[in-house]
Design goal:
The structure holds 2 protein chains of 2 kinds. By secondary structure, chain A is of the alpha+beta class. In chain A, 28% of the residues lie in helices and 25% in strands. In chain A, the strands form 3 sheets. Chain A has a 7-stranded mixed β-sheet with strand order 9-11-8-12-10-13-14. Chain A has a 5-stranded mixed β-sheet with strand order 1-2-7-5-6, with helices on one face. Chain A has a two-stranded antiparallel sheet with strand order 3-4. By secondary structure, chain B is an alpha/beta fold. Chain B has a domain at 65-170 and 256-299: Rossmann fold (3-Layer(aba) Sandwich). Chain B is built from 17 helices and 11 strands. Chain B has helices spanning 10-23, 35-43, 46-49, 63-66, 69-79, 102-107, 118-127, 144-156, 171-180, 193-199, 202-211, 222-238, 257-266, 296-299, 315-319, 351-359, 362-365, and strands at 28-34, 54-61, 84-88, 111-114, 132-139, 162-169, 188-192, 215-218, 243-245, 267-274, 278-287. In chain B, the strands form 2 sheets. In chain B, strands 4-3-5-6-11-10 form a 6-stranded mixed β-sheet, with helices on both faces. A 5-stranded parallel β-sheet of chain B has the order 2-1-7-8-9. Chain B is globular, with a radius of gyration of 21 Å. Classes of the chains: A alpha+beta, B alpha/beta. Chains A and B meet through helix 1, helix 7 and strand 14 of A and helix 1, helix 2, helix 3, helix 5 and helix 16 of B.
Chain lengths: 349, 367
């Protein structure tokens, strides 16, 4: 510090590194946090895989286990609420590992003053989501903290599923010349949430894509098509998932921007807010990587299911030692599609 | 989106690129003034589609990048006052000050509110009468009218708890300053479309006349950029220079006169220090004498700082078009968006950040 500008501050200057919001974005900072702080102490051969759900073998059965926390704001949004989201998110993490979701455990942290009426709506949404997917919530915990110590309600859910797929899809199994498919139009969940936030004062018709992907994925896994990777698209959006696949599989990916399905209102809101929909969270979409000769068959299966009507082949796997994801732009140029660095901040002019 | 589609048409883009290629016989350096234009060029991969002898230089028109280090330190200092709610655009949070950024100030307890419109800051002031609300008013002539309206409203409401930290800057003086410099290698400009939609074309006619080089006021979609480049190349080939308006759907000769009036009512032209570019006379706007009560630098006594920029950052040369981001030895290594040495790596409109985001790994293969 070259001047005494801070001497009048009411708080001490502190150079100690600390958690910032970017560490929770699902992008590069989150990845750094996991690799530099969690894995050195807690890592093992299963956790180190960093899959959506880990698969362990117990008495010759392959069991998939996942865990996720939900802190969405607002807790009620067009197309769902924090309760339905928590069940769908857990089911999806299990389904993309080729597992049939069976059981869920849930923990609820609530803020003093949180309305019981709102809690009821959330629990009813969880009930409905569990019933629709034949999943049982088998254990739960509740905690209440002082007003201001959390924001209304945070939910943590863990899921258990039985792996039915013979060859378990994995983020590390993409091969050169495989095709990349996305199961539907991207970015709806994140944009629905953004549009609800009061500071934007927007009126929007965007509904979250929050949904259980199990029935669609089950349809795919029951077919004779060998799917190499399945990954549900959540925080960090499509771009981040493609980078995770490229890194874990040691390959490169080229996508054609004009083939990526995006609802017009999602793209338009992205333009207004200065946010690239490639980085916006979905909660009911996944990426599938498959041998190119079966790509059209897989697309046909997706199109036959209500959750896959907008599915599309968006690109292919290429040989690239740098593991880049490159987009062919709509005017014929090309650009790098990097992992999300931190939450996108709107441009100011 | 239907509105935007015609400006992103691949066939029209190809035809424009063919036309540009046919006309470009000698090396040409064209500078786009605005950060938004830089972003479009990188996002759509436009540079790779152009003939090799067209070099696009990325100009100083990113307001986050040119906000001085002193202003960032003032913002941090003010934000750390316990009775202050500091309202700012999100892009400013990660801009490095001399010892920290606003994000760090937030982690240390500063009450920061990200706003998307200046008038949001007014709502914060009305809702928090016991706090002092400070708005970080940065930007070019594009943000100045809205900031002026904010201050006029605050005066009308007789708010005593509302202040602005003003770092408004002006485009024509910085263009003139770049061209006055002996090292300037710019042969034509893509002019600032949004600034001209407010200010009209008169100031840019003077620049063309004084410096005898083409300025084509250009929009922000890929076809706008290509049309702007085509117009520059045409002019340079014909050896005749004039002001052209490519962005006719937004820019008129006289601009937005009520907006210009609001700027005149609230601000006065002042000398200003730009980050990376130094002190430029008559290149900024500050509150005029009628509105000094709203000046946060007076209220919080943070004026007259003089701080030195990190010597490792070459953003000044980048903002003058003398170097490309990848010509910096720290680009992508010591300086990344997660750990920026300078502001051009921070803002979504900064040239270094755009190169890092859209081109970083290709650089090792083909700079």
């Amino acid at each position: 510090m070259s001047s005494d500008v801070f001497n009048s501050c009411n708080l001490p200057i502190n150079d100690q590194a600390c958690i910032s919001l970017g560490h929770g974005s699902g992008g590069k900072l989150s990845s750094n946090l996991i690799n530099e702080f969690f894995l050195p102490y807690l890592g093992n051969e299963i956790l180190n895989e960093l899959e959506d759900a880990s698969v362990v073998t117990l008495n010759q059965d392959n069991i998939a286990v996942s865990i996720d926390s939900f802190v969405v704001n607002p807790i009620f949004f067009p197309g769902g609420n924090i309760g339905s989201l928590s069940v769908h998110g857990t089911i999806n993490d299990l389904a993309v590992r080729g597992a049939k979701p069976l059981f869920i455990a849930a923990s609820f942290i609530m803020e003093e003053g949180f309305l019981l009426e709102d809690l009821t709506k959330i629990i009813q949404a969880m009930q409905l989501a569990c019933r629709q997917n034949n999943v049982k919530l088998i254990t739960a915990d509740t905690k209440v903290v002082n007003k201001g110590d959390c924001d209304k309600i945070f939910i943590t859910t863990s899921g258990i599923g039985l792996v039915t797929a013979n060859d378990i899809p994995s983020v590390s199994k993409a091969k050169v010349n495989n095709n990349i498919l996305v199961s539907g139009d991207i970015g709806r969940h994140g944009m629905a949430i953004m549009a609800t936030r009061e500071e934007f004062e927007l009126e929007s018709t965007i509904e979250s894509d929050s949904a259980s992907l199990y029935s669609l994925i089950n349809l795919i896994l029951a077919s004779d098509i060998q799917v190499n990777c399945l990954r549900d698209i959540t925080r960090g959006g499509l771009a981040t998932v493609l980078n995770e696949i490229a890194m874990a599989s040691g390959i490169g990916i080229v996508i054609d921007e004009s083939q990526i399905p995006i609802q017009t209102n999602v793209a338009a809101l992205g333009e207004i807010l200065g946010i690239d929909p490639l980085y916006i969270a979905c909660e009911g979409r996944f990426v599938a990587v498959v041998d190119e000769i079966r790509a059209q068959d897989l697309l046909a299966i997706m199109h036959s299911h209500p959750l896959g009507t907008n599915a599309a082949i968006i690109g292919k796997v290429v040989d690239d030692p740098d593991n880049n994801v490159i987009a062919k732009t709509i005017i014929g140029g090309s650009r790098l599609v990097d992992t999300l660095l931190f939450d996108e901040l709107p441009r100011i002019c | 989106m239907e509105v935007l589609r015609p400006f992103r048409d691949e066939i029209k883009a190809k035809s424009l690129i063919d036309n540009i290629k046919a006309l470009t016989t000698k090396p040409v350096n064209i500078m786009e003034v605005c950060g938004g234009q830089t972003h479009t060029i990188l996002k759509y991969g436009i540079e790779d589609l152009l003939p090799e002898n067209i070099k696009l230089l990325h100009g100083p028109g990113c307001p986050v990048c040119v906000t001085s280090l002193e202003a960032i330190d003032m913002a941090i200092n003010i934000s750390l006052n316990k009775d202050v709610i500091f309202c700012t655009y999100g892009d400013m949070l990660r801009v490095p000050g001399s010892s920290m950024d606003l994000f760090k100030a937030k982690a240390l307890g500063a009450n920061l509110k990200i706003v998307y419109s200046p008038l949001d800051a007014l709502k914060v002031a009305l809702a928090n009468p016991c706090k002092n609300i400070v708005f970080f008013a940065i930007g070019f002539e594009t943000t100045a009218p809205a900031n002026a309206m904010l201050i006029l409203q605050a005066k009308k409401l007789n708010l005593k708890n509302f202040f602005v930290l003003c770092h408004e800057v002006l485009v024509p003086p910085i263009i003139a300053s770049l061209l006055e410099s002996k090292e300037s290698n710019v042969q034509a400009f893509l002019g600032p479309g949004h600034v001209c939609s407010v200010m009209g074309l008169h100031e840019y006619e003077h620049l063309v006349h004084n410096y005898q080089l083409p300025i084509v006021v250009t929009g922000f979609e890929p076809l706008d950029i290509l049309e702007g480049i085509y117009a520059c190349v045409q002019q340079l080939n014909n050896n005749g220079v004039r002001l052209e308006n490519q962005y006719t759907r937004a820019v008129t000769q006289d601009g937005n006169i009520p907006a210009q009036q609001a700027i005149k009512d609230v601000f006065e032209v002042c000398d200003r220090k730009w980050r990376g570019l130094g002190f430029i006379p008559k290149s900024g706007l500050s509150l005029n004498s009628q509105f000094k009560d709203f000046d946060a630098t007076i209220k919080f006594k943070v004026d007259n700082l003089d701080i030195q920029e990190s010597k490792e950052c070459i953003s000044g040369e980048i903002l003058r078009g003398l170097k490309k981001p990848y010509e910096c030895e720290f680009f992508g290594t010591k300086c990344t968006p997660l750990n920026p040495l300078g502001a051009t790596m921070v803002s979504s409109e900064g040239a270094c950040s755009a190169y890092y985001k859209y081109r970083q790994s290709k650089l090792t293969a083909s700079p």
